[in-house]
What we know:
Blueprint: H1 9-12, H2 17-31, H3 37-53, H4 56-59
Helix pairs in contact: 2-3
Amino acid sequence: MLHSMSTTVAAAFERSAAEVNEEIRALWRRSGGTLTTEQRAEYQRLVMEWAAAAPRSHRAA
Length: 61
């Protein structure tokens, strides 16, 4: 039986929502409040990672 294996970094190492949130805050601090196109892509990736890691109570809106 063959098993598929994910090749994404996120699958290999899952961070807590708090860790991802800190990286998001650091990105905003580094940017001075205005994101470049590259930083915006990084921000979107981080928000998706945060949402996947956040406890259910933080996801309900």
